[in-house]
Structure formats: structure tokens, C-alpha cells
Amino acid sequence: ARNLKDHLKFAYKINNNHKEVIMDKTWKLERLIFGLRHSRSFAVSDKLGDIVDQVVPLQGTGNFPSDCFAKISRPDSLSIELKDDEETLSLKCGIDGIILECDMLAEPPITPDTVFAMFNDVVKKIVTITEVNSKINRLGIVFKYSITSFDNSAKELFSNLLKIDLKGTPDNINIRIERW
Q1: Measured between alpha carbons, how far is 28 from 148 in angstroms, rounded to an integer?
Q2: What is the pTM of this model?
């Protein structure tokens, strides 16, 4: 049986493998989102203050930029959100899970590996506090890209992915990539 860290590494590796397919100059990694979902636990809402007390001191240590959790808000009574002043890094924690979102175009630049390491550090702290490790049922990673040119974008992506020439095939931007 894999532990949480092994599951995260495996999921990141699988999702990161598609990088070579869409790493041409027309595709820019805009946002990177890591998420962990667990069965709904209302006990988490009682521990939101403890979560803030454990996560805020990570600022300026290891992979965390200083003041990355400068803004703390409670969008509702069941969740908390921590973000920096420019809102380039955001951590959301609630009764259903944890989401870390990063603007990959912000300055100074940050790498996907750094965001992954931050997510690992945050998850370790939060899962320990909330005691939801046995309730985790989903891990997710979303790579959001912007496309600088729409000329043959889907055709190029699928040509690279399938390793076949799709010249003359009509182009369509409605695409979705999933890997299981």
C-alpha cells in the first residue's frame, strides 16, 4: 500500500509526463492546482485556527516565499483561505479537502516542482491536524495553459501526442486530456 506522499508523487509524475506534448511556444503554463479531497468531515471546521497556526509559519522557509500567506479569510464557516497580497498563491482548506493554486506567470518565477513540494508540506501539516488521512478519496492536479496562437492548436497537440501527421484535418480547440 502506498502512503499519501507516494500517491502524490505518482499522480504528479503521470500528470507531468504530458509536458513534452504541449511544451511548444504557443502553450504557456498559466496556473497549477493541486488538490486533495476527503470524505466530508465537519470536525475540520473546528480545527481551522490550528491549521492557520501551523501553515503561516511556513512562510519564508524551504520552498515557501515570504508573505505567501499574508491574507487570511473565511469565505464561509466551513473553510479558510490563505493567499499572498498579489493572489498568486492560494491555499484553500475546508471540510471537503485542500487546494493549493499557483499563478505560474507571476514574478519571481516558480517551478511546478516547487509548487508540488509546497503542496506536500502543507498536506502533511493539515492532514495531521485534521486526522483525515483515512478519509482521503481523491488527488487531483490541474495544469491550466493559455494558448498564444489558435492556429492549428488541437491538431498540433494531437499530432504530437499520437505521433502522426494530421495535415489537412480540420482543427478544433475543444480538447481534453486525461490520464488514468
Answers
A1: 8
A2: 0.75
